[in-house]
Amino acid sequence: MEKKFERNTFGKRLTTMLKVDFRRMFTMRFLYIMVAVCLVIPILILVMTTMMEGTVSVNPQTGVETVAESFDNAWQLIGTVSSGASEPADPASATAEASVDMLSMCNLNMLYFAVAVLVCVFVADDFRSGYAKNLFTVRAAKTDYVISKTLVCFVGGALMILAFFGGTMLGGAIAGLPFAMEGFDVGNLVMCMLSKLLVVLVFVPIYLTMSVIGKQKLWLSMVLSFMTGMLLFMMIPMLTPLDATIMNVLLCLIGSGLISVGLGAVSNQILKKTSLV
Amino acid sequence: MNAVEIRNLSKNFGAKQALKGLNMTVPQGAIYGFIGENGSGKSTTEKIICGLIHESGGSVKLFGRPHTDGDLRAKVGVLIESPGCYPNYSVWNNMKLQAANLGIKNADAEIVKTLKMVRMEGAAGNKYKNCSLGMKQRVGIAMALLGNPTLLVLDEPINGLDADGMRIMREVLVDLAQNHGVTVVVSSHVLSELEKVATHYGIVRGGKMLCEMTAEELEASCRTYTALQTREMSRTKMLLGCKYSRVEEDEAGYIRVYDMVPAEEIVTYLYEHGILVSEIKTDKIGLEEYYIDLMKEGR
After folding, report:
1. Which residues constitute the domain of residue A128?
2. Which of B78, B87, B143 sits opposite A129 (nearest CB)?
């Protein structure tokens, strides 16, 4: 006599998977630590650089004097205006601006590496605890897992970005920095933030793929994630300038969609073809 | 239809061949004792059944369907190696996660029921990492039982369990198989415990199935022996050794004669040689001895 088994639709499977993953994400202490760090870091950066501004330090070996600089504007911590919008008239100053200084690197874009840590820890926990073993025994379809993890990690990453944005506002206010919008307006800033949030959806599938390769080896997932993340890192300022328009948002939306689907399929195949324990 | 039907299963880990054309048949409703030495391929077979690793060759069918069938897999309960719980979550929350994965509607009632089955209802609020080894094992069993599985795959489920825990485990397995028609595949090195519940056996060695049999067949193939004690054990052993083909001294201090001879004949023979038998009994070898014999023969 043939046994009858209840049919589980894709929608039902995905809903239960999302419930579990959201529950896990929001009961994970590490998420709150990361969000808190993202909130505090911009405050510390803005307040400390403002306090240190103008301080002269001398290298005792070379005798070279360095004057500490600070941010001119709180929004500098969110990103930069695209080069076209702020093209300087003077070629000499253009050369000076082109040179990479520490402050221009020290902004929200660095957070995409912190998102890697969150994704890697979240996924590696599944494999280290043996939860993945229980899960994949009762669920043959790996697609649910990949989609659910991508969406949940996106929400986690987005929270970190928003916390950083909040921290920047707070830090700017505490440090007394101007919030003047030169070369962009509130609409651009909203588009910039939307683009930045969508870029999380570009990085999450990359980190997820690296995490399913590394499985319980957290260190391997992290190393692979940082290495691959680095390849795309330089594109972020171009994709998400402070003077972003709807085109930037659309571009990020299409990019994130394509990468999520493409790398999602890769992650799915990795899970299907490799050992899960 | 069989619950598990494996044909010509092979699995390679690099150059190492863990399974070499293994065949296995588990009838529905059976408690299948899966026995073998360490590294013989038991866990690998169980992991393949559960879809955790992929076979290199051969076929695995569960209830007549490919083992990769998603709807079927929701009805497989598993405890392999460790229970697979988040250490910082409570027992209850770990159960809740698995219940959600299984899409159980009335999750709370189901969790209470399964925790009661393994006598863990009082420890539901405990953090998993604070549970003892035996408690963790019980949680693992409870998780495997969630969602009324049709097939249970348990790898060394009595590891770390105390005497009471083992008794509960036996009762649960027998109840599931007899009253709910659940098929259980259970591997264990504690053969004396397995013997009390298993209805079928599969003995695996070097990645191949050495033999499969029912409990009745095992009973029939287990040799009968006569065990006796005298005051002159070494002389008795020597004398019996001259007359019968297989005579051994066991750990309990009895001399065993495995030849099919009446006890009276042995007593008379020894009496004729001036030896009085102080104790004599006939018995059958258990699963453990049968297994050890089988392994020795294989070598």
Report:
1. 11-273
2. B87
Query: Cα distance from A42 to chain B (closest Cα, Å)?
Result: 31
ipTM: 0.75
Cα dist. B198→A147, B155, B228 in Å?
42, 14, 30
**Domains of chain B listed by start with CATH number:** 2-220 (3.40.50.300), 223-298 (3.30.70.100)
**How high is the mean pLDDT of chain B?**
89
Note whether B44 contacts A: Cβ–Cβ < 8 A. no
Alpha helices by DSSP H, listed for B132-262, are: 133-145, 163-180, 191-197, 215-221, 233-243
- Residue in the structure block whose two tokens are 């650089």: A49
**Assigned token pair, A245:** 């328009």
CA–CA distance, A119 with A122 (Å, rounded to integer): 5
Could you report how far apart the first and last alpha carbons of chain A are, in Å? 34
Cβ atoms of residues B213 and B34 within 8 Å: no
- CB contact B140 to A (< 8 Å): no
> CB contact, 8 Å: B97 with chain A?
yes
**Distance of alpha carbon A168 from alpha carbon A164, whole angstroms:** 6
What is the bridge-based pairing of β-strands B255-257 and B247-249?
Answer: antiparallel
A residues 121..140 contacting B (CB < 8 A): 125, 129-140
Other Cβ atoms within 10 Å of A157 Cβ, number: 26
Query: Do B82 and B129 touch, CB atoms closer than 8 A?
Result: no
Per-residue pLDDT tens digits for B207-227: 999 889 998 888 777 778 899
A276 vs A210: which has the higher pLDDT: A210
**Digit-coded pLDDT (tens) for A85-116:** 444 444 444 444 444 455 556 789 889 999 99
Q: Under DSSP, is residue B211 helix (H, G, I), strand (E, B) or coil?
A: strand
Helix, strand, coil content of chain B in percent (nearest 5) = 40, 30, 30
Chain A CB within 8 Å of residue B296 CB: no
Nearest-Cα residue of chain A relative to residue B146: A138
Taking CB atoms and an 8 Å limit, are A131 and B74 in contact across chains?
Answer: no
In a domain, A1, yes or no: no
Q: Dihedral (C-alpha) A73, A76, A77, A83: value to the nearest 10 degrees?
A: 180
In a domain, A3, yes or no: no
Question: What's the structural domain count of chain A?
Answer: 1
Q: Which of B65, B97, B110, B151 to mutate to test the interface with A (most CBs of A within 10 A)?
A: B97
